[in-house]
Please model this.
Amino acid sequence: MRRRAVLAGLAGLAAPAHAQQATRIEISGNRLLWNDAPLRLCGIAMGDPVYIRAGRSLDDYRVVAQDWGANCVRISVHPGHWRYDPVLMAQYLDTDIAAARAQGLFVIVDWHVIGFPDHYEPIPPPEWGLPPDAYLSSIADAIAFWTSMAQRHGDDPHILFELWNEPVGHQSHWVSDGAWWPDFKQAWLQITAAIRPISDNIVLCAGGRWAHDLTGAAADPLPDPRTAYAWHVYPNEDRYDADRWFKSLGTLAANKPIVVTEWGFCPSCIDGLAGGPTDFAEPFTQNVLEALELSHTAWCYSPGATPALLASDGQTPSDYGAFVKAYLLALRDA
Model:
């Protein structure tokens, strides 16, 4: 089924109509299905309502749906913001989710943790303006958050739950070997067990190495039948290896659905995000996303969060954003 047809079918859906929608995302082998037809989620990671999206209009969701050709967005929440005021944070999330759903968009809700308890617990630089515990979460914190999300949004099958943004066993471990997967797997089992009595929405689970290493999941997948896997890909991972991306997937892509919930490049950067169309974006989109027909959301719809899809005016696509916009429009119109 063409993505245009999927979008057309969603165009008339408004967020309050959840209870009337019997269709849900299904998993068949390594594919997502909607109405018994293949569903490929292709869109934009929007950031969180409090920090990255501070001061931005909800009209952004119309823009990415209509002008950029997205059929999916990823909306994040920092654990530190949630702990500070869970009631207010839930209201912010509800507002952004409703704006996205009003445009017929699928939504990935992302618990935006970096690290893992008792392993790696990073503190953001003070100049970022985030609380020191912004990225930190206990398993109990995650269970409380996802229980709340399941209660608030678990009746809308267009919403997927990304349980943990970027698990990290050790900050210097840049090898895809599944080293901490047993620890991560036990956590995802606990969190999923809290969600399932309330909601059967699709959950997305990540591996280690900042969500890039899925070899552990390939060897020992989660038992929940409504689990797909999140993958993050940036230019620096195994930059000079010929099989740079496939070595981190293992055999997972042949057996389970994978959603690349973050990918991108930064032509002007000098760090691990440094890359351009020729040396990163074209081979990655053509040889991985298209070859494997993976779902994906590009990070990040912002003029400041790197890699930035928007230029400094906050509206015009950056050079990177122009690449992503053209890619999404081509997929929509294919």
Remarks:
- The first helix runs from residue 3 to 10.
- The radius of gyration is 18 Å.
